[in-house]
Amino acid sequence: MISLSDPTPTLHSSLLSASTKLGFFHLTQHAVSSHLALSAESAAASLFNLPDHQKKHLFPNNWPLGHEIEDDDDDDDESSSATESFCLDSSCSAESENELNMDSLREFTHELEKLGYELVEELASAVGFEKPGRNELCSLMWISEGMNKPGRVYPYALGLHYQIRAQKQSLLSDSGWATVMRPAHSILVTLGDIAHVWSNGKTKKVRGRGGIPISSGGDVDDCMTMSLLITLQLESTVSPLVIGLVADRECDSTGDDDRSSEAPLFNSFSFEEYAWRVYHERLLLKDPLIRYRV
C-alpha cells in the first residue's frame, strides 16, 4: 500500500521498494472519486451492449485504437468466451459523439492520466532515471470484458487500474503469476516494460495490461476492467534513462572508477516496431525485451 499523501522521502522509499521487488503496488488516498469511477464504469459497460455494427462504426479499428473481439483459437473450453475490448485515446473520442454520453468516462480517464503522469515523475525521482517529457508520453484507456483472459498486450510505462469493488486479480510479473486482492477504491498500479528499460532493468515489470479478473459470479462488472496505460508516442525511441549511464567504462579518460555510473543493459529500439510485435505476436509468456539486451 502506498499513499501519495506520505512525506516525499517516505513516498520515494516505498516506490523504490515496490517497483524493484514486485513491479506493482496499491495506491491509496488518491484524488479519483469513487462516484466518478462508478459513472465511468456504467458508461463503459454500455459500450458492450451496443449492436455490433454500431461498435464498428463508432470505434473503427485504427491500431491500437478501436473495438476488437479476440477469439482464443487455442482454448478448448467451449464455455470460454472471447475477449472483447475497446481501446480509446485520452479524450475517449468516437466517430459520432451525439450517439453516446462519454462525459463521465472522459473525465475519469483524464483524472487517471493526471495521476499517472505524477506517478511517472515520482517514480523517476525514486529510482533515479531522467523524467521523460510530457510530449513524449500519451495515455490509452483500455476497456476489456472477458473472464480470466489477458487480452491483447501493449507496451506501457505505468498501468492504473481503479478498483471499484474488492476483487481478486491475477497478474504476471517477472517473478511469475500472482493473485492479488485489490481493496475497494484503491488503484492497482503496475509497472510495464517501458519503465523496466527506462530504469535500466532496476524495476520489475508486469506483462500484459495488468490485473485479469477472477470472478465468483456472472455479473459483467465482475469481468470488466478499465485500465489507463501511460505509454509512448508511436514515433518514440525506447532507451535507458538512468542518470550517469555510460556506454563504456573503459572510455573514461580520467581512469577513475566512477561507481555512480553504470553500463546500459538495453540497446535503443523503435517503440512502434516493438509495440506492433508484442501486440500481434501475443508474447505474454515470453519476455519480448530479450532481443534488445546488450
TrEMBL record:
Question: Which positions fall inside the Non-haem dioxygenase N-terminal domain?
Answer: 8-58
Q: Does the keyword Metal-binding apply?
A: yes
Which GO-annotated molecular functions does the record name? 2-oxoglutarate-dependent dioxygenase activity; metal ion binding
Please give the InterPro entries that the UniProt record associates with this protein: DIOX_N (IPR026992), IPNS-like_sf (IPR027443)
Instruction: Identify the keywords attached in UniProt to this record, alphabetized.
Output: Iron, Metal-binding
> Iron: present as a keyword of the record?
yes
Q: Where is this region: Disordered?
A: 61-88
Signal peptide location in the record?
A: none
Amino acid composition bias (Acidic residues), ranges on this chain: 69-79
Spans traversing the lipid bilayer: none
Q: Which PANTHER family match?
A: 2-OXOGLUTARATE (2OG) AND FE(II)-DEPENDENT OXYGENASE SUPERFAMILY PROTEIN
Q: What is this protein called?
A: Non-haem dioxygenase N-terminal domain-containing protein
Species of origin: Erythranthe guttata (Yellow monkey flower)
